[in-house]
């Protein structure tokens, strides 16, 4: 049963989506009419309500709904990149994942869901306002106990060692790569997010000089389709470039290094 304080996704007949936190006596206005919170409280996910002359479905929000509705000051990591990052970093139950650049907490939340109750995410952010905003967003997901936020520039050192994975999303990643690698265990995976080509080139030059193998650079694209069965085709608009994703695996120091 849906209760006061729960978050629900209201999906209307025209495809509009509203993420609402339920409060006693509250009203949420839409272009179709007002949604009375009292009409949702006590119902079950999957039930239908009326909005004016239209109907809407009450659904349980997914991680993508939270991502696109985050209270944010920074650019989010898009879901099309999120899933690929999680798979390439092999995030799983019980992992220790470190990220630098909490941003709005979108990637933090995705990591926290996948490490499970036995894992941990440590998120470094040097801007206090961004860190607090990310913390608020993670708390709304109900998994704040899996995340530790640290107000610190990782150029001053990373407290954790033996991490399974590291996600680096900062304006100038190259100066931090040595610290990132020192925090990873042997075989640990890293991902560096770079918006521009020149950043990719600089990161690749640096990684090629360090104990990192299996280096790859990816860019992801997806297209949403119209769901009219008689006029099935791609949507008129799509999200183009979001970021370049650089992946690599740390190898232990002292191992033999091969030259091409």
From TrEMBL:
Gene Ontology BP annotations: tRNA methylation
InterPro entries: SAM-dependent_MTases_sf, TRM61_C, tRNA_MeTrfase_Gcd14
EC top class, as a word: transferase
Gene Ontology CC: one annotated term: tRNA (m1A) methyltransferase complex
EC number: 2.1.1.220
Gene Ontology terms, MF aspect: tRNA (adenine(58)-N1)-methyltransferase activity
Domain of life: Bacteria
tRNA (adenine(58)-N(1))-methyltransferase catalytic subunit TRM61 C-terminal domain sequence ranges: 57-230
Residues binding S-adenosyl-L-methionine: 125, 153, 169
Catalysis performed (reactions): adenosine(58) in tRNA + S-adenosyl-L-methionine = N(1)-methyladenosine(58) in tRNA + S-adenosyl-L-homocysteine + H(+)
Alphabetical list of Gene3D superfamilies matching this protein: 3.10.330.20, Vaccinia Virus protein VP39
Cited Pfam families: GCD14 (PF08704), TrmI-like_N (PF14801)
Database matches in SUPFAM superfamilies: S-adenosyl-L-methionine-dependent methyltransferases (SSF53335)
Subunit structure: Homotetramer composed of a dimer of dimers.
Family, as annotated: Belongs to the class I-like SAM-binding methyltransferase superfamily. TRM61 family.
Summary of the function given for this chain in its UniProt record: Catalyzes the S-adenosyl-L-methionine-dependent formation of N(1)-methyladenine at position 58 (m1A58) in tRNA.
Protein name: tRNA (adenine(58)-N(1))-methyltransferase TrmI
Source organism per UniProt: Kosmotoga arenicorallina S304
Lineage: Bacteria, Thermotogati, Thermotogota, Thermotogae, Kosmotogales
């Amino acid at each position: 049963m849906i209760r006061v304080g729960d978050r629900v996704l209201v999906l209307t007949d025209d495809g509009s989506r509203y993420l609402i936190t339920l409060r006693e006596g509250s009203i949420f206005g839409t272009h179709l009419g007002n949604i009375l919170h009292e009409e949702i409280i006590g119902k079950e996910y999957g039930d239908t309500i009326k909005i004016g002359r239209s109907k809407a479905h009450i659904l349980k929000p997914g991680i993508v709904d939270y991502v696109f509705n985050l209270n944010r000051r920074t650019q989010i990591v898009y879901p099309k990149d999120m899933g690929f990052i999680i798979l390439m970093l092999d995030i799983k139950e019980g992992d220790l994942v470190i990220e630098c650049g909490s941003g709005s907490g979108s990637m933090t939340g995705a990591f926290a869901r996948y490490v499970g109750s036995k894992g941990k995410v440590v998120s470094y952010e040097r801007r206090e306002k961004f860190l607090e905003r990310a913390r608020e967003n993670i708390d709304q997901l109900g998994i704040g106990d899996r995340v530790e936020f640290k107000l610190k520039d990782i150029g001053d050192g990373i407290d954790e060692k033996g991490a399974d994975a590291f996600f680096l999303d900062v304006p100038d990643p190259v100066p931090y790569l040595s610290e990132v690698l020192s925090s990873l265990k042997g075989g640990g995976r890293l991902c560096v997010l770079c918006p521009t080509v020149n950043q990719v080139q600089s990161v690749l030059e640096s990684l090629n000089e360090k104990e990192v193998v299996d280096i790859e650079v990816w860019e992801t694209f997806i297209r949403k389709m119209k769901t009219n069965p008689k006029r099935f085709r791609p949507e008129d608009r799509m999200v183009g470039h979001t970021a370049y994703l650089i992946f690599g695996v740390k190898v232990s120091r002292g191992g033999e290094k091969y030259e091409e």
